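Section 5.1 Outputs to date
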Amino acid sequence: MRLIALCILFTVAACAEADANANQPADMQGWKMASGKSPTKAEFAAVVAACQDRAVPAAQEKPLDACLGDLGLKRVE
C-alpha cells in the first residue's frame, strides 16, 4: 500500500513539473537583460509570469516577446 502511495506521489509531482514548464518559452538562452547580463531562471520566470498573467498594464493584448521586451529583456540573435 505504501508503494502505491509513493508511486502516485511521484506521478503527481512529475505532472506538476511538466505543467509548470509548459507555459514558459522553450529557452531563455536567447534573452539578455537591459544591463547585458543573462537573467537567472527565477528572474526570467518572474517576467514571463507577469506577461502571461497580464499583471502589467503595458502587457495587455501584446504577444509574449513584445511584453518581455517592454519589461527589459532583449532578444539576442
